[in-house]
Amino acid sequence: MRKPLVVGNWKLNGRLAENKNRILALAEAVKNITQVEVGLCLPYVYLFQAQQLLANTGMLWGAQNVSQFVQGAYTACISAEMLAEFGCHLVIVGHSERRHYTAENSQKAVIRIQRAVDAGITPIYCIGETQAEHAAGVAKKVIAAQLSALLGLDELSLQKIFALGLVVAYEPVWAIGTGQAAIPAFVQEMHVFIRRLLAQYDSHFAANVRIIYGGSVSLDNAQSLFAMPDVDGALVGRASLNVDTFAGICAIASQQAVVQSHV
Ligand code: PEP
Fold it and tell me: What is the rounded distance in angstroms from the CA atom of residue 167 to the CA atom of residue 90?
């Protein structure tokens, strides 16, 4: 049974004072949710705050990206070792906003995944097709290419990545920040497709990997998305900035996990 994971991606949002209230209120609101892992990915400068406020809460936290470099003359980069030294549990890699604004690609993302894993941090690898690719009917082709960058790694590297519990986030770009989530049946189809691709490498890993969905998850659609058997949680952007909404989404994931454990 895969334990669902719901992660808030704060993106470029936050201020010290408001973060404090939001983080503490969230930790309180989800403290009795045990069926689901709850995490937050914050801007780098707020990781210290997360480290201080989330210690001993059971909540996971981490960064929104990591450098593909280990150390040296790479101005403004943050290494996986630095994140690990801080105690980060998670790091988002390959987010579509990074791909769009900073020309990150799957090859670079895969190096970042390796760096994260080497440092003991769980990477959340974001994949997904753009609106144009979706409209052209090539979503699966795009996803396959994004995953093949990962599956092309050598055996030892892949084993390490899988052992550390890589999370795959299927995030159709056209659904991110638009208020228009993908319909649950389509998400399920894509998640099954992703799981099958991973199974070509390792069926045990494929059965256990968490594939979470991202793209305008809200209180209104969480129930129907989490009811899909291959949706193992969510990466939540905008809705994670509101404590009640985000905690509500986590609670729905938890209820659904209980339902599925009885199926
Ligand atoms: C995201 O950017 O990862 C995301 C899912 O954003 P939103 O929930 O706002 O669509």
Answer: 10
Residue whose Cα lies nearest atom 7 of ligand 1: it is: 237
Question: What's the CATH number where 63 sits?
Answer: 3.20.20.70
Is the alpha carbon torsion for 96, 102, 108, 113 positive or negative? negative
Q: What is the extent of the structural domain holding 66?
A: 5-261
Q: How far is the CA of 9 from the centre of ligand 1 (A)?
A: 7
pLDDT one digit per residue (tens) for the chain, 263 residues: 899 999 999 999 999 999 999 999 999 999 999 999 999 999 999 999 999 999 999 999 999 999 999 999 999 999 999 999 999 999 999 999 999 999 899 999 999 999 999 999 999 999 999 999 999 999 999 999 999 999 999 999 999 999 999 999 999 999 999 999 999 999 999 999 999 999 998 999 999 999 999 999 999 999 999 999 999 999 999 999 999 999 999 999 999 988 877 76
- Would you say the CB of residue 214 lies under 6 angstroms from ligand 1? yes
94 in contact with ligand 1, CB cutoff 6 A: no
Please say if 171 is a catalytic residue.
yes
Q: What is the pTM of this model?
A: 0.97
Number of domains in the chain: 1
